[in-house]
């Protein structure tokens, strides 16, 4: 697997910090900050869709 270029951690309230990274093979990676070896990997297009859907409120029901 190619090296992953990780973005700076995105931290919400409390200790919920996530990192998003990409590699040269066109994969996107999401991990809890400090646990990058346990990541979810999918295509960059899938990550883009996930972020757009979250911003559009399609996951709001998970927060109730």
Q: Segments where pLDDT lies below 50 for 5+ residues? A: none
User: Based on helices, strands and strand pairing, what is the structural class?
Assistant: alpha+beta
Over the alpha carbons, how many angstroms does the gyration radius reach? 13 Å
Q: Let me know the largest β-sheet.
A: 5 strands, antiparallel
Percent range of helical residues: 10-25%
Instruction: Indicate the proportion of strand residues.
Output: 25-35%
End-to-end CA span: 38 Å
Average pLDDT reading: 91
Q: Give the oligomeric state.
A: single chain
Number of helices: 1
Count of individual beta strands: 5
Broad shape: flat
Instruction: Give the SSE string.
Output: EEEEEH
Organism: Streptomyces alkaliphilus
Protein name: DUF397 domain-containing protein
Summarize the structure.
The chain is an alpha+beta fold. The chain is built from 1 helix and 5 strands; from the N terminus they run βββββα. A hairpin with a 5-residue loop joins strand 2 and strand 3 (17-22).
């Amino acid at each position: 697997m190619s090296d992953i270029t990780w973005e700076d951690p995105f931290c919400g309230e409390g200790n919920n910090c996530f990192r998003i990274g990409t590699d040269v093979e066109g994969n996107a990676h999401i991990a809890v900050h400090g646990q990058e070896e346990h990541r979810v990997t999918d295509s960059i297009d899938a990550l883009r869709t996930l972020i757009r859907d979250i911003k559009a409120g399609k996951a709001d029901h998970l927060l109730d």
